[in-house]
């Protein structure tokens, strides 16, 4: 996670400290007493008994915290929830990942977690859209679906005891992602909400907030959600004959028709995404980067808010990553929370 | 190594073609950078440059040494670069050595000057003490802490900040000596004099991606480069060093165009670097 670092002038330093003071006293901040550091003793009623949960350890009869975080008590269970942790996957999470390896009957996917996740061949939709047994030919043609370094969106199917993670793309909204850029943020900044796929109509940009901290911002997929190829190539009939232009027959939503794309032709590359759309994509991406660097929660409303504010302040897209804009966002957030407190 | 899908590569190339890169910069814009001076108190001078996510430190140590052969009235500069394993996983163990050597050679080419000592970053005769016997040798050591592309430019900015921060101790020669005796010197650690850094060049690296060149490439953009030309330019617009990386050949006309682009970019970049160095010095002095 790379944050933005600046040297602030004394005037800017003062503004930041003032804003930080306001944020500390504002509504929505947790009381300082709830925080524990590593090695702090946690108050427990030893008479009544307690159950030791994650992030704690009993040393010399005292319950100590082993991580920095907030103490959570559920009945007799005492645990410490760390503030900054590696991504903890839950079943049903929408994640954005990068294929690292193509292994027999599965893909290994990097999802910013302790281990690479697994995407089984049986857990993807095959081209042709029909449900059938995966044959040996399917196994040989895995690269025609997803190759190394491809970016995909998927859902967490299940977690196993040993910590391994299984994904699936068994819905038309999941699949390979194209025509956009990936922004990596800390996973704890992304809240688990009902919707992770957002199509921002007012800007004409697709936004996917992966629970694992990978945010994908892209031009909308032209073919829409139900892209069906005209002549689905049935892989099982191919009998190992030469595979040609497999990608154009996949059902994985992709914005481009591969047959028309010619990488060496600059003009075609240029025309796929107009400059205005590109500018909106970059501005949204920078809004996400700024929110991540400042440690503010990332969800659609906060991103759109930062975007609109940058437009109203006439900030150039590249200037959003400079010190002045970030300080103004901090001040704005402090004001915002103060207002919320007054409203309550 | 930076892993990019084919779709991301197309997006990056398209952005460069449209003069709108992934973070909104145009082709000839530098990322916001920050400079800290005097970060290493034990050294005679030090500077740290953060260019986006790239982070480098340069330190200057002044030691007494012998003048170079054939130039008895000059001091000398020794430059070294180290890529720390914290910067990237591929730098672990001896993995960073090749890159360190390449960066070192490029910096030597632009800062050391010719065989006669002309064109060096600082006036080497200002390091002179005793003709033919003693001179100041400035050891410029740099460390790459974090790598997100454009290491050479960040290093040159850090070196300029470190040289600006350097104080050369005052030396008094005691007792007249005969030719074969080692001279006695009194090095005064309290008083020091600054160096004249008006001629220190800044390296500007132009990375060629497809048909266009960009300035200050991130690690992602650098992974798509066909060739890169680093031009060292000083405040007067004089080119003092040239390095080409990458296996793809360049037409000489493109090379000439790249040099003129670098000089054009330097006209805005060098004043902002100098201003930032001055600001960091006053911050260091104030705290």
UniProtKB/TrEMBL annotation, chain A:
Q: Does the keyword RNA-binding apply?
A: yes
The K Homology domain, residue ranges: 180-222
Family assignment from sequence similarity: Belongs to the RRP4 family.
Q: Which organism is it from?
A: Sphagnum troendelagicum
The region annotated as signal peptide is: none
- Cite the Pfam families for this sequence: KH_6, S1_RRP4
User: What are the RRP4 S1 domain coordinates in residue numbering?
Assistant: 86-158
Query: What is the designated name of this protein?
Result: Ribosomal RNA-processing protein 4
Record's subcellular location: Nucleus
- Chief localisation class: nucleus
Identify the InterPro entries for this entry.
Exosome_RNA_bind1/RRP40/RRP4, KH_dom_type_1, KH_dom_type_1_sf, NA-bd_OB-fold, S1_RRP4
From TrEMBL, chain B:
Q: Which residues form the Exoribonuclease phosphorolytic domain?
A: 30-169, 200-263
Task: List the CDD domains hit by this protein, alphabetically.
Answer: RNase_PH_RRP42
**Which Pfam family would be a valid example here?**
RNase_PH
UniProt xrefs under SUPFAM superfamilies: Ribonuclease PH domain 2-like (SSF55666), Ribosomal protein S5 domain 2-like (SSF54211)
Q: Where in the cell is it found?
A: Cytoplasm; Nucleus, Nucleolus
**Cross-referenced InterPro entries, in alphabetical order?**
ExoRNase_PH_dom1, ExoRNase_PH_dom2, ExoRNase_PH_dom2_sf, Exosome_comp_Rrp42_subfam, PNPase/RNase_PH_dom_sf, Ribosomal_Su5_D2-typ_SF
Stretches assigned to coiled coil: none
Asked if the keyword S-adenosyl-L-methionine belongs to this entry, the reply reads no
User: Where is it mostly found?
Assistant: cytoplasm
Please provide the record's keywords in A-Z order. Answer: Cytoplasm, Exosome
Family named by the database record: Belongs to the RNase PH family.
Write down what this protein is called. Answer: Ribosomal RNA-processing protein 42
Q: Please name the source species.
A: Sphagnum troendelagicum
